[in-house]
Design brief:
The chain has 16 helices and 16 strands. With 503 residues, the chain is an alpha/beta fold. A hairpin with a 2-residue loop joins strand 12 and strand 13. The longest helix is centred in the last third of the chain and has 25 residues. The protein is globular and about 90 Å long. The protein binds one RNA strand of 76 nucleotides through helix 1, helix 5, strand 10, helix 8 and helix 11.
Amino acid sequence: MDIRFYNTLTNSVQTFQPVDAGCVRMYSCGPTVYDFAHIGNFRSFLFADVIRRTLEFFGYRVHHVMNITDVGHMTDDASADGGGEDKMEAAAKRMKADKKSGKVTAGAVENPDDPYQIAEYYTKAFLEDAQTLGLRVAFEPDNILKATQNIDTMQEMIATLIQRGHAYVGPDGVVYYSVESFPDYGKLSGNTLDRLLTGAGGRISQENQSAKRHPADFMLWKADRHHIMKWDSPWGTGYPGWHIECSCMARKRLEKDVIDIHTGGEDLIFPHHECEIAQSRGATGADAFARFWMHARFLMVEGEKMSKSKGNFWTVRDVLEGRATGVKVHPAVLRLELIKSHYRANMNFTRKGLQDSAGVVKRLTDFRSKLEAASGGKSEPADLSHPVLKEFAEALADDLNIAGALGAVLPWAASVPTDPAMALGVLNRINDVLAVAPLATAESSAADDSDDSDGILQLCQQLDKARAGRDYATADRIRSEITAAGYDVKTSPQGTVAQKRLA
RNA sequence: GGGGCGGUGGCGAAGUGGCUAACGCUGCGGAUUGCAAAUCCGCCAUUCGUGGGUUCAAAUCCCACCCGCCCCUCCA
């Protein structure tokens, strides 16, 4: 079956073919570790995870890597030659405040003035969140790449770019990439040099551009002894530009000049990915860096753009622990909510959507239980000759149409299959992609189920007793007590069972 | 100003030339229940942003217009 993906590079849906039939190489722009990752970040990361799992579903071996940006970049170093406050320093301030308020556990970060400790703290938090949400790459330490551990590779590439005439040292001592040396600059984003000049609404000219040959030239290395994280280099002690790490780490870890897929959020199309292409192709001379560039659109929250000032800026932890919606949310529910609509449309994160997703997770989970009971836990290997799996696969192959794929799965999950072992095999393959029923996570997430389950069990028994004695007033009171504790109550002749609500 | 994405029932969301426009939620009717919840059965868009056009046939193609969103500035 042909797999077709939308490629930002060509603005069209194309049939996917890896460079090397034996292995798909993909790179995903990961988080900056100055703060906890939010659900918008994770929409993009989970989108990458779904691509990876889809390719694996179709039998490809996938080498997926993700970077961790732990270099302390400046708050507005993207357009000019660096400026504003260092993000790591800003994080240090926040960290100190959080330690005082108890938001960050006392022993977690010994010295907030040490940027490496801050980066380490948030990196660990990110990987925990990523594992909780079933991001496969987060379970592969070798494929999580840290910028600070690859500075030497970046310096090598910068030297190559200078040598090949793609970069120069400006009069201010900063190493810049010369966009005019790369004719394809702008091909990915549509922001070609002539358009950038005429269309930027005057923003470009306001900046201090005097050291650059072209206003769109971007920084590769800046000597700055005062920067909080700095390294020695032929161009002075300082720090790398914010685009260079991805070009270098992708090539180094994936061991190819041309990779298959590069993913990120839509905001990264320009300038970040445009600059990565210029760097990589400038250094390698290849006619491509990644063959497919895939971008997830932004997430909205209750119809509004997520922003700190609106107070709708939710981290993964906020949602799971109930600070976003007032109800604790199972990780599988959040995962499904973030992957279930098409990645190329803005998705609206809502409380109602979360409840819908909870219903779907419950249905799939219940279906699995029924199948396991009926088949004795045995599953038959399933292939695409099964109509449900075929429809599921066709939807996925059509540019990751998860909604369409669910449209095939959900009615089936409400049916009673004649061959439960085969159905279980089908469900297993479906769940290899969706990873919501069950969600394979770090052990930590299941823990909070047990804390009050003894009490709930007792209440269920009391409820049965009251019902047996036809004391319905008491029975109703107990039932609302269990419900209020966040459980769904199922009464039956076999006895009452309480099930924790997923969201 | 430049570069993109999208407008389908109360809500979310598939479908890109031709069966009665998927699927999920909500709602309604029924079974079940002490009453509920859960579950099961059934029903719910003559219509696809607007106006034209092409065609035997269009939500799907063409033209025009309206609206929303994103990027071009730190951001996934």
